[in-house]
Write a structure and sequence with these properties.
By secondary structure, the protein is of the alpha/beta class. It contains twelve helices and five strands.
C-alpha cells in the first residue's frame, strides 16, 4: 500500500470551480418571453436548475464528501481501527460502487440533462431576428471579458492555507448587473467569484478593471430596449448551457476528477492487509478526513453592481 497522501488540494479546487459554474447555471434567469411562449419549459427548467444545485451542494459536497470526512474523523477519535467500520461509511447496500461515486454520477447526469434545453431555447431565441445579432455579439464579448476577469480574481485552496489548520471557508459571490432602473428584476446575473480563507466573512472587493468592464456592460444594458434585454438574457443563458453541459466541458472534466478522487478514498479502505491498513491506510484516511472536515462550502451570495 502506497503512503502517498490522498488528494485534498486538487479535489477542493475542482469543487470550488464546480461551485462557481453550477451556481451561475442555477441563477441564470429565464426572460419572460420563454414563460409566455413555453410555460411548461420554463417551469421544468427552473426545477432542473434547483435540482442540479442541490445535488451538487447539498448532496455531493455536504451529504457526500464533507459528511464522509466528519464521520471518518469521529471514528478515529473514538479509537475505531477496523476497516469494516470505515467501509460501512462509504458503501451503499446493494450498490456496485461507493455511494459517494453515485452522488457524483447523479450530478453528472443532471448536468448532462441540461443539454436537452438548448434546442428549444435556441428556437425561441431565433425569433428575435437577425437585427439584434450585432448588438448581442458585442454584449456577449463584454460578458466573456468579465467572466475572464472574475476567473482571474477567484481564489483556490493552497498548501500554505491548508498548513495553517483551522476552519477554512469557501465563499462564492455571484455578480448581478442591476440595470438602469436599479431593480433586481431588470438585472442580469453573471458568473461569480470565489474567495477562500480561514475567516471569509464578507465578499472581497471587485477589482477596478472588472468594475470598469461591468460599467461598459451596464451602459449597454441601460441603452437596450426590453426586447433586446430579453434576447441578451436568453443568449447568455444558452451560452452557459452549451459551455457546461458538453461531454468534455470543464465542468464535466472536473466531475470526473472528483469521482476519481472519491474512488481513491474508498481504495485506501479496501487495499492492503490488515497490518498495512493499521500502519498506513488508517493514517492516510485520518489525515484526509481532518483536512476535509475543516472546509466549509458556504451557500453562494448575490451582490448587485452598482450597490
Amino acid at each position: 500500500m502506497s503512503g502517498m497522501a490522498l488528494p485534498i488540494l486538487d479535489l477542493c479546487n475542482r469543487l470550488i470551480a464546480l461551485a462557481r459554474c453550477l451556481s451561475a447555471l442555477r441563477n441564470g434567469r429565464l426572460p419572460g418571453v420563454v414563460a409566455r411562449q413555453a410555460p411548461g419549459l420554463a417551469t421544468e427548467y427552473r426545477f432542473w436548475q434547483n435540482t442540479l444545485w442541490k445535488g451538487f451542494h447539498q448532496g455531493l459536497v455536504g451529504h457526500g464528501i464533507i459528511a464522509l470526512a466528519l464521520n471518518c474523523r469521529q471514528l478515529v477519535r473514538e479509537g475505531r481501527s477496523d476497516q469494516g467500520s470505515y467501509r460501512a461509511l462509504i458503501t451503499r447496500p446493494g450498490a456496485a460502487g461507493p455511494a459517494i461515486c453515485a452522488l457524483c454520477d447523479g450530478v453528472v447526469n443532471q448536468l448532462a440533462f441540461g443539454a436537452s434545453y438548448i434546442g428549444p431555447l435556441q428556437r425561441i431565441a431565433s425569433q428575435s431576428g437577425p437585427a439584434a445579432e450585432a448588438d448581442l455579439a458585442h454584449f456577449r464579448a463584454m460578458v466573456t471579458m468579465v467572466d475572464g476577469q472574475l476567473d482571474a480574481v477567484s481564489e483556490g485552496l493552497t498548501e500554505g492555507l491548508l498548513a495553517q489548520g483551522g476552519p477554512i471557508a469557501v465563499a462564492i459571490t455571484n455578480i448581478g448587473l442591476a440595470g438602469a432602473e436599479g431593480s433586481e428584476e431588470a438585472g442580469l446575473l453573471l458568473r461569480g467569484a470565489a474567495q477562500v480563507g480561514l475567516a471569509t466573512a464578507k465578499p472581497a472587493p471587485i477589482p477596478v478593471d472588472t468594475l470598469a468592464t461591468m460599467g461598459l456592460a451596464l451602459e449597454w444594458w441601460a441603452g437596450a430596449g426590453p426586447a433586446l434585454r430579453q434576447a441578451a438574457q436568453l443568449a447568455l443563458l444558452i451560452d452557459r448551457l452549451v459551455e457546461t453541459t458538453a461531454p468534455r466541458s470543464s465542468a464535466m472534466d472536473a466531475l470526473a476528477v472528483v469521482r476519481n478522487d472519491c474512488r481513491q478514498v474508498r481504495a485506501v479502505i479496501d487495499a492492503g492487509t490488515s497490518a498495512e491498513w493499521a500502519t498506513v491506510g488508517l493514517k492516510r484516511l485520518a489525515d484526509w478526513a481532518d483536512a476535509m472536515a475543516g472546509i466549509e462550502f458556504a451557500e453562494p451570495v448575490l451582490r448587485w453592481v452598482p450597490d
